[in-house]
Amino acid sequence: MNIVCLDLEGVLVPEIWIAFSKASGIPELKRTTRDEPDYNKLMNWRLGILREHGLGLNEIKATIEKIDPMPGAREFLDALREKTQVIILSDTFTQFAGPLMKKLGWPTIFCNTLEVAPDGTVTGFRMRAEQSKLVSVKALQSIGYDTIAAGDSYNDLAMIQASKAGFLFRSTEQIKKDHPELPAFEEYGELLAAIEKELD
Fold it and tell me: Which of 167, 129, 132, 176 is nearest to 147 (CA)?
């Protein structure tokens, strides 16, 4: 029994924080898990910037509403879901994911949650589990699934390495250089073909 585990941002949709960085005019918010391996450190830093500028969930959601999946992402996901079960494993938050899941045809997503005050101020965040992508892959394996994983960032490496097969997709030159053992693809057709081979 196979199940495919995909990252969300950078793989199926553009990076939310980069889009919000552009919309808000705050260049520091362009920093993502491609740049910072420590997710807790990254999120606490982001929340500090939001507080500093008086921005909250409402402003971020207004940006997310305008984000569309990457060209070809919906078709790729639909084709993949015809072949096998797919779960999106993301370090994003339930408050961010809804509009994006609608545009992707409501795939299953496991993600985290924000702590938000009544006025929309983001006061904190709750991770579903430490190393949630790796923990999810191991849990799926424990109930009889062979996992196939793909992602683009540092926080995807553990789930990719722990899976029966794993791929980098539109990753950074540094990550590809550090992990030459991982097949790296730039186009959905290539990734779909590689996954299909593993499903045989």
Answer: 167
State phi, psi for 83 to the nearest 5 degrees.
Answer: -95, -35
Domains defined along the chain, listed by start:
2-13+70-112+129-199 (3.40.50.1000)
Given the residues 7, 15, 91, 156, the one annotated as active site:
7
Decide if 146 contacts 3 (C-beta within 8 A).
yes
Q: Which residues contact 119 (CB under 8 A, 6 or more apart)?
A: 56
Provide the residue-wise pLDDT of the chain in tens; the chain has 200 residues. Answer: 999 999 999 999 999 999 999 999 999 888 877 777 788 888 899 999 999 999 999 999 999 999 999 999 999 999 999 999 999 999 999 999 999 999 999 999 999 999 999 999 999 999 988 889 999 999 999 999 999 999 999 999 999 999 999 999 999 999 999 999 999 999 999 999 999 999 97
Is 127:133 a contact under the CB 8 Å cutoff? Answer: no
Q: Strand order of the sheet with strand 85-93?
A: 122-126, 108-116, 85-93, 2-6, 146-151, 165-169, 184-185
Q: Which of 9, 15, 91, 156 is catalytic?
A: 9
Q: Has 7 been annotated as catalytic?
A: yes
Concerning whether 156 is annotated as a catalytic residue, the answer is: no
Task: Tell me whether strands 146-151 and 122-126 are parallel, antiparallel or unpaired.
Answer: unpaired
**Of residues 121, 155, 136, the one with CA closest to residue 41:** 155
The answer to whether the CB of 91 falls within 8 A of the CB of 132 is yes
